[in-house]
Amino acid sequence: MTNGFPPGFTWGAATASYQVEGAVSTDGRGPSIWDTFAHTPGRISDGTTGDVADDHYHRFSEDIRLLADLGLTAYRFSIAWPRIVPAGSGVTNPAGLAFYRRLAETCLDNGVTPYATLYHWDLPQPLEDAGGWLVRDTAEHYRDYAAVTHAALSDVIKHWMTLNEPWCSAFLGYGSGEHAPGRTEGTDALKAVHHLLLGHGLTLDAIRSDEGSYGIALNPAPIHAASESAADRDAARRIDGLRNRLFLEPLLAGKYPADVLEDTGTTDWFGQFEADLPVIGAPLDFIGVNYYCPTTVAAPDGPVSSPGGPTTQPGSENVVAVDTGLPRTQMGWPIQARGLRDILVTINKLAPDLPLYVTENGAAYPDELTAAGTVEDDERQAYFEQHLAVCRELVSEGLPLKGYFAWSLMDNFEWAYGFSRRFGIVYVDYETQARIVKKSGRWLQQFLTS
Predict the structure, then answer these.
(1) Which residues participate in substrate binding (predicted)?
(2) Which of 72, 95, 309, 390 is 20–30 Å from 372 (CA)?
């Protein structure tokens, strides 16, 4: 045992293609919805784009060596669909496949196991123009892209995740419009939920082999009612349904939660596609959990902090977010490490033998370089300490938690916040592209190697 964790426990850090790669028009890459969104005035809070980001496309060897030097043995990255199939469907781009082969081989050369996510939100723009995730064709095009990618790279990548946080893709992309493609389609956003999950199932069927391990990365969260009143408990039921059960039940139990479909008036629409449920519910080798914070909600007469965040989903009308006084990160997200326990135990009860990974966990703070050239991010270090203590407890209790990935390896383009939020254990000077390991990164290194 090392620090309470068994031998073979996976320790890694994560990134996503649009957030770090840059090189958006290099070697045949096509445009994605995030290219379009970031270049639309007013969409990104600081007016920046991911055109250059961390220049990871050219600096990945340096970044992977840095990850390995920190004592991490796994790298979770995402593959950019527009690099592989620039138009979303049709012709494959060999240069895109070659880039990810170089990346994976560099991981292996440095003793780092590659974990690839096939979709981390960068839908090719031509497919959005044809309807995006609101149309079924996108799920089938996604399967085809994934099959090509897997066939080309499965000799060097053995661990695959189909989707990252489909809740965000559907509800922030097509519900609230906070993320690309920036659409506000009301309850039609639930169509995107189904097509994303269908794409996941079709892809598993197309790529699964005995030599690989296949899963999905979700962002479930514990949902608490602000009080024991019937109205507040019903508010919590609604948000738990939209945030958690709408994804976990079709994946693990082969059905959509009836109350969520009734709440959103989509029972008849979903009823047309019951034949898709066995595809969506195909057996998984693991589930990845991206955990950041819990959510407390109330009916509108409760103590309101802001109506944003998790209550922007279609079907969450008459629900408000409540500030319970917990400390918060720069994102405004409340810090509660035991929420990680709650959500992992919940999933374990649904699928007792299914391996689990924490595929993202971290915090944003307004980091600054000191005169000595260091970043003293004590709050982030404390965040990691608290959440890793929970992971240690769960492993000791026998829960099948197999690995932990810090979010993020390095500061990057934080979606609609641009470069105004830093999550990395490595500081990035965006003018020079210099990488500087933060105090939290050095702490993690010592934790892993002591």
Answers:
(1) 19, 120, 164, 292, 407, 414-415
(2) 72
257 belongs to a structural domain: yes
Is 407 within any annotated ligand binding site? yes
Residue 5 lies in a domain: no
Q: Is the previous residue joined to 181 through a cis bond, with omega within 30 degrees of 0?
A: yes
For the annotated catalytic residues, the residue numbers are 165, 360
- pLDDT in 10s for each residue of the chain, 450 residues: 468 899 999 999 999 999 999 999 999 999 999 999 999 999 999 999 999 999 999 999 999 999 999 999 999 999 999 999 999 999 999 999 999 999 999 999 999 999 999 999 999 999 999 999 999 999 999 999 999 999 999 999 999 999 999 999 999 999 999 999 999 999 999 999 999 999 999 999 999 999 999 999 999 999 999 999 999 999 999 999 999 999 999 999 999 999 999 999 999 999 999 999 999 999 999 999 999 999 999 998 755 555 455 667 888 888 999 999 999 999 999 999 999 999 999 999 999 999 999 999 999 999 999 999 999 999 999 999 999 999 999 999 999 999 999 999 999 999 999 999 999 999 999 999 999 999 999 999 999 987
User: 120 among the known binding-site residues?
Assistant: yes
Domains in the chain, number: 1
Q: Are 363 and 407 in contact (CB under 8 A)?
A: no
Q: Is 19 annotated as a binding residue?
A: yes
> Sheet of 295-298: strands edge to edge?
223-225, 295-298, 320-321
Q: What is the DSSP letter of 410?
A: B
107 within 8 A of 115, measured Cβ to Cβ: no
Nearest to 239 by CA among 302, 325, 185: 302
3-state class of 288 per DSSP?
strand
Question: Could you give the CA distance from residue 280 to residue 309 in angstroms, rounded to a whole number?
Answer: 27
Q: Phi then psi for 80, rounded to 5 degrees?
A: -80, 110
115 lies in some domain:
yes
Residue 87 counted as domain residue? yes
Tell me if 58 is assigned to a ligand binding site.
no
CATH number at residue 265: 3.20.20.80
What is the extent of the structural domain holding 52?
A: 10-449
